[in-house]
Design goal:
Strand order of the largest sheet of chain A: 2-1-3
Largest interface: A-B, 11 and 19 residues
CATH superfamily of chain B: Class I glutamine amidotransferase (GATase) domain
Shape of chain B: globular
Strand content of chain B: 25-35%
CATH architecture of chain A: 2-Layer Sandwich
Radius of gyration of chain A: 15 Å
Shape of chain A: elongated
Largest sheet of chain A: 3 strands, antiparallel
Oligomer: heterodimer
Largest sheet of chain B: 9 strands, mixed
CATH superfamily of chain A: Phosphoribosylformylglycinamidine synthase subunit PurS
Chain lengths: 76, 221
Amino acid sequence: MKTRIFVTLKNGVLDPQGKAIHHAIEGLGFSGVHDVRAGRLIEIEHEPGLSKADLESMCTKLLANMVIENFEIEQA
Amino acid sequence: MRAAVIQFPGSNCDRDMAVAIRDITGADTSLVWHRESELPSNLDLIAIPGGFSYGDYLRSGAMAARSPVMQAVIAAAGRGVPVLGVCNGFQILTEAGLLPGALRRNAGIRFVCRTVGLTVENSQSMFTSGYSVGEKIHIPVAHHDGNFFADDATLDRLEGEGRVAFRYAEPVNGSARNIAGVLNDAGNVLGMMPHPERMIEAMQGGSDGRRLFEGLIREIA
């Protein structure tokens, strides 16, 4: 079984990388892009029995830094 | 005096740190590999050095903060053993929850490698007693992720409690309130992005970093 975990910056946390990517997109000639924020996708292959609570615990203990990031768990 | 410098895969300031501690304080200084689950006994100082532990995978300091030796460091910090984290060491201490906040990508995206001016904000701590408040010193930085972030309430608390040890004299990396180094609430853990161990003798361009170690040995002795 596969679970996808999306780690994103909290609102209000400035994202220098997102800003640089935004500039690069504009540099390629694309217009109409208002903002870009970069995050991280982590795919976990696991036993079907792994609980949501364990996945959440992985996120808060390691995969996301709760000072600056949020996470979202997407189970297939 | 006994000191330990923790080594992670990718640490690169471990030997400089050990030399600085040994030369300045005379401490019996050992290098401790991250897989160890115990530290040498009766330590007077633990240093977490700079570098790129675990290749900065996931987040700078994130993997190192979960390595076996850090459980022993957290326990020692809880008993009041002084812990100094420099650069990647600062990142590791925030990731381990020993210091508040987080260190994010520099606001200008670029790696910053130069000597910067710092203002000493607190000279009462065991790490900063070699300086005077308001004094301007010069110490090198070399980092990509030194942009200190914490929410406003945390920043207010840090400032109110005198836990900002050093501030950049001018913006360097986008750090909130120009914070360059912070203390834990008990005052025995300091994290800082600048490298005091790289400024300990004239040959290195100055010795402003030396006084951190000199102050520390007076406080510990």
